[in-house]
Structure formats: structure tokens, C-alpha cells
Amino acid sequence: MTPFLIFVVSCGAAYSSLVPHGGTPRPPLDLKRYALASSFGEYRSRHLHAGLDIATSGKTGFPVHAWRSGRVVRIRSSSNGYGNAIYLQHSDGSQTVYAHLEGFPKRFQHLLPRPPHPLGGDKNGNPMQVYPKNPPHVRKGEVIGYTGESGAGLPHLHFELRNALEHPLNPVSAGFPVEDSVPPRLLAIGFEPATASARVANDIGTVFTNTSGIRLEAAGPIRILLRAYDEDGAGGGRLGLTSIDLFVDSHPWSSIRMEEFSYERIGEVGLVYDHFRSGFSPTIYTYDLTAPNDAAMVVTSRGPVPAGRKPLKIEVRARDLAGNQSRFFSTLLPVQHRSTPPTSQPNLLWDTISLTPAGILVRNDDRFLRISKTSRGESGTFRWKILSEKRSRSDPTLLEPDSFFPLTLVGEFRALRLLLFQDSSFPLPPYAVAPPFFLGPYGRTARRSGKICVKRIGRENGLALLKNGEWKWISGSRSDSFGTSAPLPFLAPVVPVRDETPPAVRWFSKRKRRIVIRDDFSGIDPESISVRENKQSGRVLDGRYDSDHHWFIIGDRTIPPGGIMVTVRDRAGNETRALLGGKAR
What is the DSSP letter of 397? Predict the structure, then answer.
């Protein structure tokens, strides 16, 4: 079996440039070739990516130029998010945003109440934001900042274009230069029954294949998924796709166009992408080609494909920012009245247990079993519970704890039914103290802030979530005498964990005054970091923690001769006290 789908490549220029009012724009950086780290409309766990991330080869300090003439209407500096960012408004009402900067020219820096730190915020990390009463004028091409790594992420420039409605637009459509001849990588196509009566490959589970031209028997409404990414041809990162078209019998069925969306609907990312099958490390994006029509303003769709009456020719066309195209072909055949073995499936975690709108699917003896008729039950290592969703505004609780499932789940989720499943034989992270709780349908997003609370089972001090095949500590996990709680942005497998490993502390470079502080699972709590002189009543040394590099940068120019004492905790509460240099008191 080939490692990637067979594709047909069509290389060419980027989509037709929409030359904006004010003439041809000026690229924001002077680079021989633009390497992109992220593209427009890419998956993020809570939103769509609203711009382009331009890689700077791990370096900072490159001059950033104004895309067009305009006025500085906003300037901000924070230790998270966009970090140091400047906003220009142009004569046609559109805006451009330049984020994660190291700093600003003196002309603009004085607009802030205090000097910005290269990592964002003031020297103590406090956020600053100003809307100038008399916005300074900027000429096209004028230097308005310097690339950096403030806020979230390693060194890069986040460049964003917004129209007069403040809707993010794809900068490539307005003339941003892209040089790329590498077509998108289509890793696998998924066919999933959308109802309890539907079938694919003589089975009720999801079938993924990476072989173009495959013929599958199917009946009923079928959901079609695409696992794919694009490799930036200039040596950047793995990017999302710019457009995807689904054709059924050569007729347009659905399309995804990453051209424009609104911040009001940016949270509908879970309708365009499959949350559970998308993420980073590794970077994989799974698109729902049968998503609801108008989802996030980027989808045009007729919904699941009705299979079974006649053979249906399926074609997927995927394009990247430069217009390079890859294709996938398949045929959905009517189900024959005979017993045929199901198509073999990749050995993926979600193929063993799947929680779908059509019910809980459990892989057993190379077949899927559906658990959907009874409200609760047990069989071997499995136990399950199915609930109807409550939609009370005053009480959004979906599930109250009982002896069967000691869970409380709060929030309004887009799900017709809440499905719970537990398997004591499922592979777990080394920190797990109990079997996982499979909350589904997978990937359904909370309309508001979702929250899960697990009654105390053992000695857990946090919760981990299974995403893109890996268990991740849920940021915001908290433990008390009742149990452990954490925010839950979308439904996914969750397991109680106990992280007992304290953070590691060592010098990275004494000359550069940088200390490596990192944790292997729950992550560092930046607010807990204390760096002091190693002496009685030693003074606290100024500095900032860079969560992307996992190091603390000491602000003082010299290191105390008696050494320094570093105290830090991880998010699970484990503490480390480390003496660096000098002798212990």
C-alpha cells in the first residue's frame, strides 16, 4: 500500500490576486523566499487561524514593513496571544495586523505607557494596550516593528488582513507572494456511517483508506473525512489546505474555501475540522467534507452523501495556497446481498472505539458492535451509559455523578445524545490512575465553556485528554477534596492522572543568563517561578519565563557570585528547589 494517496498535480500561480485600493501592496518582510509556518484558516483547538505565520529561521530582529499606507489605530503588548502587535487601518477601511514582534521603532514605542519586553508585556509581564487618539500616519513600506517571538510561538511574524467588517481575509488573495510547487499530501480518506442504519464496507464503523481508486460498498447517508496537510515548498512547516471540493458523480457536492470568515463564528472550527483527529505533534488536519452548510462561513455543503441506490463516483480535489492540486478518487457501490469481509482499516486508536452520532462503536473480532439501545450496561472490560442532552439555560449540566460513572459534565455541547464509554483495557499514559472516560460524540464543541469534574477515584491531581493519538494534560486541571475538574472545549476521551515528577532545572547558558526549566507532562506554572540570590534574605532577580523555549531569562546583567536558588512548581503542584552555582546555604 502506498504511503500517500495517488494525486494529480496542477502547479501554477496563486489564486487570482485582488489588488487592493492603494495599488500593489508591499510584502511585510525582505526575504528571498517566504517560508510559511502556518496558513490561513488552519485548525486551532478553539478557533480558525486568522492569518499567515511567516517563518524567520529561528531568528529575530528582521524589519517589518507596512503592507500599505495607513494609520496606527492600535498597539498592544502582552506575554501571551499576539505578544507585541501593531494594527494599521487603511483608506478603504481594511486593517493589517503584525504580531509576535520583538519591539517597535521609537516613533511607535512611546505610544505605550511602559517599554515593551521582547517577550511581550512590560518587564514584569503586565499587558499594555493603546488606541491612539491621534493615530500616526504610516507610509507603505515604512518599518513598523521587528520580528520576534513575543506571546505564543517560536520566532515568526503573524501577518493578518481584515476587511472593513473586520473579517479575516486570506492575504494570498490580496497579493501576498507564495512560491510553492509541492502539492498537498492526502494521507487518508474516511467514510463513516452518519446514521445507525448506514453501512460502509459491510460494517457500521469508520473506514479510512490511503489508496485512490478504491471501491467500497455503502448504504445510507455517509460522512466523508479527509486527513491531509500541505508542505510549504520554501522549507516552512506543515500547512492547512486552502480549498477542498467534493464531487459526487462529477457534480459539486460540497466545498471548503479558506478565504474569509468572521470572529463571531471563528469558534465553529469543530464543524469544519474533526477535533479528535486534528492537532499537532504530529501536525495532521482532518476535514469534514460533509459538514453543515455555511459552517464558519467557509463551508458549502449538501450534508452526508446518500449511498446505496447506485454506484457513486467520489472525487476530492484539494488545493494549497499556491494553487497546487491533489486528487482522490473512489466509488461507493450499492451493498450486495451477500456476506463480504469488511475492508481492512488502519491501526488507529479511534478505529478500536468510536463515539459517533450514530452510537458507540466497539471493535470486536474484526467487526464493529454498536451500543445504542440500552441506557447503560457492562460487558467484559467495557461499561457504557447513554444520556439525552439537557438544554436548560439555567442548568446546563449534562451529566450528574453516580456510582456507575462518577462524572459531572457542565456546558452546552452540540450533541443530540451524550455517550459515555469506559474500557479498562485501553492503552493509557503512565500517569493514569483509572480507566478513561470516552465522552462523545467525539469532537463536538462546547457552545460555552465546558467543564468536567471527576469524583476522587485515587490519588489523581489532574486530567488528561486524548487528542490526535496522544494523551495531553488538560490545562486548568484542579484537584480538591471532592475531585478533579478541568475545562473541556470539546468531547473526547479523558482520564484521571497523577503527575508526581517535579520540574527539571539546569543552566542553559550562564553567559546568556538562561536557565532551562521544563516539565515532562503537566507543564510549568510560570507564576510559581522564583529566582533569588543564594544567601539569607537574598534579593529576587528579575526575569521572564519563555514557555516556548522552556527557559527563564534573568534580567540582571551579572550572576551573583554565591549562586542562585530557583524554586518552581509544575501545574500538578510538584515543586523543585535547585541551587545553580555557589554552595548551598
Answer: E
Contacts of 109 (CB under 8 A, 6+ apart): 103, 115, 116
Output the pTM of the full model.
0.83
Domain boundaries, the chain: 36-174, 185-349, 372-497, 504-580
Determine the distance from the C-alpha atom of residue 22 to the mean position of all C-alpha atoms in its chain, rounded to a whole number: 35
Closest by CA to 482, choosing from 406, 379, 395, is 406
Each of the 585 residues of the chain gets a pLDDT tens digit; together they read 334 454 444 443 343 334 455 578 999 999 887 889 999 999 987 889 999 999 998 899 999 999 999 999 999 999 989 999 999 999 999 999 999 999 999 999 899 999 999 999 998 889 999 999 999 999 999 999 999 999 988 899 999 999 999 999 999 999 898 888 889 999 999 998 888 788 888 777 788 888 888 888 899 999 999 999 998 766 667 899 999 999 999 999 999 999 999 999 888 888 899 887 888 767 889 999 999 999 999 999 999 999 999 999 999 999 999 999 999 999 998 987 544 444 444 433 345 666 666 666 766 666 666 666 556 777 666 677 766 554 444 445 556 666 667 777 776 665 545 666 676 667 788 899 888 887 776 666 666 667 888 888 778 899 998 887 788 899 888 888 778 888 887 778 889 999 999 999 999 888 888 999 999 899 999 889 999 988 877 888 888 898 888 989 888 877 888 889 999 999 999 999 999 986 544
Q: What are the two backbone dihedrals, phi and then psi, of residue 295, each rounded to the nearest 5 degrees?
A: -60, 125
Residues in the chain: 585
For domain 36-174, the CATH architecture is Distorted Sandwich (2.70)
Instruction: Determine the CATH number of domain 372-497.
Output: 2.60.220
Measured distance CA(473)–CA(496) in Å, rounded: 10
Determine the Cα–Cα distance for residues 3 and 441; give it in Å rounded to an integer: 29
Number of H helices, E strands in the chain: 3, 45
3-state secondary structure 91-117: CCCCEEEEEEEEECCHHHHCCCCCCCC
Q: Are 150 and 118 in contact (CB under 8 A)?
A: yes
- Tell which residue, 181, 121, 126, has the closest CA to residue 148: 121
The C-alpha cell at 158 is 503573524
Q: Which residues of 146-164 are buried (b: 16+ CB within 10 A; e: fewer)?
A: bbbbbbbbebbbbbbbbee
Helix (H, G, I), strand (E, B) or coil at 269: helix
CATH class assigned to 504-580? mainly beta
36-174 and 504-580: same fold?
A: no
Residue with cell 524589519: 63
Going along 469-525, which residue ranges are E strands?
470-473, 478-479, 483-487, 493-497, 504-509, 514-518
- Cell digits of residue 155: 520566532
Nearest to 98 by CA among 75, 125, 71, 69: 75
User: Which residues neighbour 533 within 8 Å (Cβ) at sequence distance 6 or greater?
Assistant: 539, 541, 560, 562, 564, 565
93 alpha-carbon distance from chain centroid: 30
